[in-house]
Amino acid sequence: MTADQYDVIIIGTGPAALGAAFHLSDNNPAISILMIDKEPVCSGGLLNDCKQNYSYPIGFAEECWTREEAERLLPLVERKLQPVFKEKMNLETYRKRAERVGVELFDVRQAHVGTDRSRLLIRRLMDELADRGVQVMLRREVTDVREERESALITLDDGRTPRAGAVVVAPGRKGFAFLQRVMEQLGVEYVDNILDVGIRVETRLENYPIVRDYYDPKFYFPDRVRTFCTNSGQARVALERYGEFSLVNGHALSSENNGNGLVNFALLKTIGLKDPVRSGHQMALILGRLANEIGGGRPLMQRVGDFRMGKRSTAETFNDDLYSFRPTCPVTAGDLGLAVPAKIMRHIWAAMKKLDTIVPGVLHPSTIMYYPEIKMYANKPAFLDSHFRVTPHIYMVGDGAGVSRGITGAWASGIRAAEGIFEGKR
Fold it and tell me: InterPro entries, alphabetically (predicted)?
């Protein structure tokens, strides 16, 4: 079978892939680009509720970025996504409270689209790329990526073997296993020793009123714990399937919808494993499977009131009592202490207590802690240059490659790869 020839092939259609595609076509309208995704629609953070952070270091892997480099590219990201920024109020009050207990609160320029409107944004972006002549294949899986003498070649699940002068691999967090396999096939060294493990907290709006002043507050606590992905308005906790088990995540609809009076956010602890335990991927699988096994095939949830008294939650705990509310994601009521490693839970609980000092009320007995929320995005390759090149013709970008931690950082990493492709053609 004769292979199709392109200037650039991009694996993925998430933010990193879009960043590369737009920058390539902006600077060379005649360039031929093929984008491939196994999903039926653009995946990643854009497809969820699409929170965007436009302030360094939020969303950037700091070991891969300087402030100057991030701030050079963020305006380019903003130009394409056209965000409507959220207003912030009373930030200094919360910041002073945080400083008193050794916590840092970042002032971040933020925008939010909402799960109900994210597909409209995706459609606009994909239609614009189609108008530029970018070819897109959805529901097609890449089974192999190979470096050749003058180009790179990929194999699709239907047997086709397109090749290009450059291949950008941008599979996102869900593609961490695919990325590992490709790196091993190519002989690319990589680091797989970092992951984020934590809980998703759900409570009433009156117990976390800071979201009225600051949509997605970014608190950084001691012991490498941070808040992540806050949702309010019409907010819910959702399940995400990873192979044979489920994780929890949070979503929120746009401000056009009436609120449900609830808030949810993640508290994540960054884990850095040392020799001889090196695989964050394997640790994530073990923790995810354990929680789902204890939960009878589902994640776990526990009320703060039960956790403080050292007893498990039961289905009866989630009732219509005066201070209670129904969970938006009815998983298995149980005891997080049986599933969360003790050191991780100790550091997360310490952060919860500090947060309750900054925003009194979050530790109300009715507050729910869901587990597990795990971010598997740190299979970081050994890069050949600052453009995230791993072989002469292959680049790896985005959250899956460990160079970003969110939509804007991922998009910017795609731009850096595109700049490297142009630089290589000179």
Answer: FAD-binding_protein (IPR028348), FAD/NAD-bd_sf (IPR036188)
* CATH number 3.40.50.12780 given to 5-86+112-191+378-425: no
C-alpha 232: how far from chain center: 18
Strands (E), 180-221: 190-191, 194-204, 218-221
Q: Which helix (H) or strand (E) holds 95?
A: helix 91-100
Question: What contacts 282, CB < 8 A, 6 or more positions away?
Answer: none
Rounded CA separation 118/423 (Å): 33
Q: Comparing C-alpha atoms, which of 265, 200, 199, 207 is closest to residue 232? A: 265
C-alpha dihedral over 204, 208, 213, 217, to 10 degrees? -120
CA distance 117 to 112: 10
Q: HSE on the CB side for 124, CA within 13 Å?
A: 8
Per-position DSSP letters for 327-369, written without gaps between them: -SS--EE--GGGTS-HHHHHHHHHHHHHHHHHSTTTT-TT-EE
The mean pLDDT of 286-295, rounded to a whole number, is 96
pLDDT tens digits, one per residue of 80-95: 999 999 999 999 999 9
- CA-derived radius of gyration, the chain: 22
Higher-pLDDT residue of 259, 199: 199
Give residue for tokens 């009436």: 258
**Separation between Cα atoms, residue 145 and residue 72, nearest integer Å:** 31
Q: What is the pLDDT of residue 71?
A: 97
Contact in structure between 291 and 200 (CB atoms under 8 Å): no
241: left (phi over 0), alpha (psi -120 to 50) or beta: beta
For the beta carbon of residue 257, count every other beta carbon within 10 angstroms: 14
Which amino acid is it at 288?
G
User: Would you call 63 helix, strand, or coil by DSSP?
Assistant: helix
Q: How far is CA 365 from CA 109, 117, 154, 225, 312, in A?
A: 32, 34, 53, 22, 13
**Positive or negative: CA dihedral 411, 417, 421, 422:** positive
**Residue 43, pLDDT score:** 64
β-pairing, 368-375 with 163-169? Answer: unpaired
Angle value at C-alpha 348, between 57 and 307, nearest 5 degrees = 150
Question: What pTM, to 2 d.p., does this model score?
Answer: 0.91
Intervals of CATH 3.50.50.60 along the chain: 5-86+112-191+378-425
